């Protein structure tokens, strides 16, 4: 229904952002809301997916069309809903997800919340060999992640925000507490805390 929204990012929370366009504030759930922190109060284009179910109607947003395409592909897999698809994309490296599917790496896929062996196998069966045409740019760049760390404004607050975001993605308090000591020695922005935490969780 909606391909994208061009508007101003007015609010960022652990689960969603609010984009104002044409005098309307759209609540948009994203894989990592804090990745939009540098765009707060700035106009930008967000690619959107309008999800409609009997008991749920929601708008999901992505910084690139490729992320949106992978999200829709994941939704077509039995056992994966919007929350699960967002958690998979929140790692910030969709290329690794594609790589795991192509190489049938179930051990990597089951590390995402809500993904068991059955769902991981279904992802491979449904998507292997079908992603290159839809996401050609992901294949030559697999595992070439470039990390840019900005100077944090408030490290304690940033870490707290990151923990809330991880909870909203489906990770348990036990899982988060286990990696928290590794994060407390870092001085990062919220977005980078989330990415670092996901790296630990996916090991």
Automatic annotation (TrEMBL):
Residues 154-203 are annotated as: Domain III. SUPFAM superfamilies: DNA helicase RuvA subunit, C-terminal domain (SSF46929), Nucleic acid-binding proteins (SSF50249), RuvA domain 2-like (SSF47781). It is found in: Cytoplasm. Residues 72-91, 107-126 form the Helix-hairpin-helix DNA-binding motif class domain. One of its GO terms (molecular function) is hydrolase activity. Its main location: cytoplasm. Homotetramer. Forms an RuvA(8)-RuvB(12)-Holliday junction (HJ) complex. HJ DNA is sandwiched between 2 RuvA tetramers; dsDNA enters through RuvA and exits via RuvB. An RuvB hexamer assembles on each DNA strand where it exits the tetramer. Each RuvB hexamer is contacted by two RuvA subunits (via domain III) on 2 adjacent RuvB subunits; this complex drives branch migration. In the full resolvosome a probable DNA-RuvA(4)-RuvB(12)-RuvC(2) complex forms which resolves the HJ. Has three domains with a flexible linker between the domains II and III and assumes an 'L' shape. Domain III is highly mobile and contacts RuvB. The RuvA-RuvB-RuvC complex processes Holliday junction (HJ) DNA during genetic recombination and DNA repair, while the RuvA-RuvB complex plays an important role in the rescue of blocked DNA replication forks via replication fork reversal (RFR). RuvA specifically binds to HJ cruciform DNA, conferring on it an open structure. The RuvB hexamer acts as an ATP-dependent pump, pulling dsDNA into and through the RuvAB complex. HJ branch migration allows RuvC to scan DNA until it finds its consensus sequence, where it cleaves and resolves the cruciform DNA. This is Holliday junction branch migration complex subunit RuvA. It comes from Robertmurraya beringensis. The gene is ruvA.
